[in-house]
Amino acid sequence: MSSLLLIAGVLVAMFVAYNIGGSTTGPAFGPAVGADAISKPVAAALMGVFFFIGAWTLGRNVVTKLGSELVVDTGIFTLESSIAVLFFIGVALLVGNVFGVPASTSMTAVGAIAGLGLAGGVLDFAVMGQIVIWWVVSPIIGFWVSLIIGRYFYARLNELVAMERSTGPLLDIDRSGLVPILRAHRTTNRRELVGTITVVAIGCLMAFASGTSNIANAVAPLVGSGELEMNPAILFGGIAVTIGAFTIARRTLETMGSDITELPLTAAIVVASVSSTLVVFLSALGIPASFVIIATMSIVGLGWGRATRPMTAPEVVAGDGGPPVTVNALAADEEGEELPPIGTEDAEDIPSPGALFNPVTTARVVLMQNVVPAIATAGAYLTFRFVPVFGF
């Protein structure tokens, strides 16, 4: 019976990891696929490799935090309770999908485990408080870092990164020697090559960051139960993520997966870099992070900083008004254009036909990012507290 439960637990954990692979491949490699830099199978393969590297290295810290440190008595992680926790994670994420909001798997997993800990009276409130504090602080850091980049550095970055794909393939394979060698195609220019390498590298960084944080969401309960060792748990999770990347991620790659990849290429690179760096940093501390919330605030900060370039710092602080924050504001600088000093630009030079972020939509995303984990927490607590089979 115990073996059957373990097999069931591994399958449920792999199902969660499968969905993680499907939902995170698009945001990570959508820009690269959309720019015809790499194919969908290559994107899936890169996702699987770099997710596994992130999970195998820094991901262990987050698995340990959720599986053994969030509760003071790991004996509460029985096979039955671990499977139930994974079930609540899956149900809560389904609610987010129904509302069209990419829910945070990290916050949802923490919520479900916290509900279990509350029901059993073994939740470590100090560890929980540390996690919640970083959940509040990290999006603020992402906002301000992106704002500074948008105001002072975005235009120059746009000059370096912005590119247009030339006709013909990006690379050729030289098979004249014993070892095939990749060479730039004759129509490929230097800007195109650098931009392509950059956007693929950013995708790999996002996949690595996802591995460092998200592997715990799928396997931490089973590892905490002591029924599954860390290494095989990460291996099973990595395999499931790769399968998800090669199958259901195709749709998210076609649609670019999330609001992040609907931004101009330069903006997508900035947001992905800032968000991924913060997620990797938090994973090194063992803190499960919400990439979506950090990325959302990074988008807002980047657009805000870019749109206030026509204003001096005192005018911004005084709130003397300014242009609306728009996608076109982020993409307004043309290649080779000489930029005037900050505070001397005409606000009308930054067009505004499409809003970068709709306040109502942004509020809905942030609200659901908190509601979904709350559903997981409440559902887990009520079930473990009042359903007799669990004995709490």
What descriptors fit this protein?
about 400 residues, mainly alpha, two-stranded antiparallel sheet, about 0% strand, Phosphate transporter, transmembrane, phosphate transmembrane transporter activity, transport, phosphate transport
Helix and strand arrangement:
Elements (H helix, E strand, L loop, with lengths): L1 H33 L5 H17 L2 H11 L9 H20 L6 H16 L4 H37 L9 E4 L6 E4 L5 H36 L4 H17 L2 H6 L10 H20 L6 H17 L5 H6 L8 H4 L28 H28 L6
Plain-language structure description:
The chain has 14 helices and two strands, in the order ααααααββαααααααα. It has helices at residues 2-34, 40-56, 59-69, 79-98, 105-120, 125-161, 190-225, 230-246, 249-254, 265-284, 291-307, 313-318, 327-330, 359-386; strands spanning 171-174, 181-184. InterPro entries: Phos_transporter (IPR001204). The chain crosses the membrane at residues 44-63, 75-99, 132-154, 193-210, 230-249, 287-305. One of its GO terms (biological process) is phosphate ion transmembrane transport.
- Helix proportion range: 55-70%
Major sheet description: 2 strands, antiparallel
Enumerate how many helices there are, as a single number: 14
Order of helices and strands: HHHHHHEEHHHHHHHH
> How does the helix and strand content classify structurally?
mainly alpha
Detail the poorly predicted runs.
256-261, 321-329, 331-337, 348-356
Shape: globular
- What number is the mean pLDDT? 78
β-strand number: 2
Distance between the termini: 22 Å
Q: Strand order across the biggest sheet?
A: 1-2
How much strand content do the residues show?
under 5%
- Tell me the Rg in angstroms: 22 Å
